[in-house]
Design brief:
single chain, 235 residues, alpha+beta, CRO Repressor, 3 domains, 5-stranded antiparallel β-sheet
Length: 235
């Protein structure tokens, strides 16, 4: 019996994991009402199949499969039909506009002032008067846009050109060179080893982490964790 329960548990775990992956990453990051309902039912069906061994395992598989297909189908329809999208996902609600609170929308969404003020404080805004727009998204998150005079300065405001953000490529992790990452930046092992030698490392085994951002090679030593950042001399 224990072996049967173990096998059912493992199968259910991997099947539910696969189902959630098929439904998409948005299930993890943001759940709509429809997504939440589907996830709860899948959890209940999975729990029932594990608690009652008299229920055939394929019953849970069948129900979960139907729910996955239903979710994918509804997502496809909502993607191509804005009416269905608004029906399933709902619409964003403007709670604050030009520093004035929209009382009727606050009441309709049952969103009280304490919630509003708390979320404004979390975004470092102390008063509603400093808010240009506050929008309650369908996920329940509050998007806040401060007034022009309250926004932090940007390079555009100061007429300064800014470099685009570049994702760092991990070349070495825990003393192991990642050849696929080297190939993605069109570099070789020989090039990397030359950079290590130039910065005082005899081998990649001495490096806990090495990251390349297109201009700078960031190195973190394996033994003591001290970080050094030096400009690549061969650019």
């Amino acid at each position: 019996m224990l072996s049967t329960l173990l096998l059912r548990t493992l199968f259910t775990y991997f099947f539910v994991l696969l189902s959630l992956r098929i439904m998409g990453k948005r299930e993890i990051g943001k759940l709509s009402i429809f997504d939440l309902v589907v996830s709860i039912i899948i959890a209940e069906v999975s729990a029932m199949s594990l608690q009652d061994l008299r229920i055939p395992l394929w019953h849970g598989v069948f129900v979960t499969g139907i729910l996955v297909l239903l979710q994918i189908g509804m997502s496809y329809l909502s993607l191509h039909n804005h009416r269905i999208h608004h029906l399933i996902e709902g619409k964003p609600t403007v709670l604050v506009a030009n520093g004035e609170i929209n009382d009727s929308e606050m009441k309709r969404t049952r969103y009280n002032m304490n919630d509003l003020l708390m979320q404004l404080r979390e975004k470092n805004i102390s008063t509603v008067a400093d808010v240009e727009f506050a929008i309650l998204e369908t996920s329940g998150k509050l998007s806040v846009f401060p007034k022009a005079g309250q926004r932090p300065l940007t390079p555009d405001d100061m007429i300064i050109s800014a470099k685009p953000t570049v994702m760092t490529t991990s070349l070495i992790v825990d003393g192991e060179i990642h050849d696929d990452k080297l190939a993605s930046i069109h570099k070789s092992r020989e090039w990397l080893k030359q950079q290590l030698i130039a910065q005082g490392y005899q081998s990649e085994k001495q490096v806990f982490y090495a990251g390349w951002d297109g201009e700078t090679l960031y190195l973190d030593r394996l033994d003591d964790g001290s970080a050094v950042e030096k400009q690549n001399p061969t650019l």
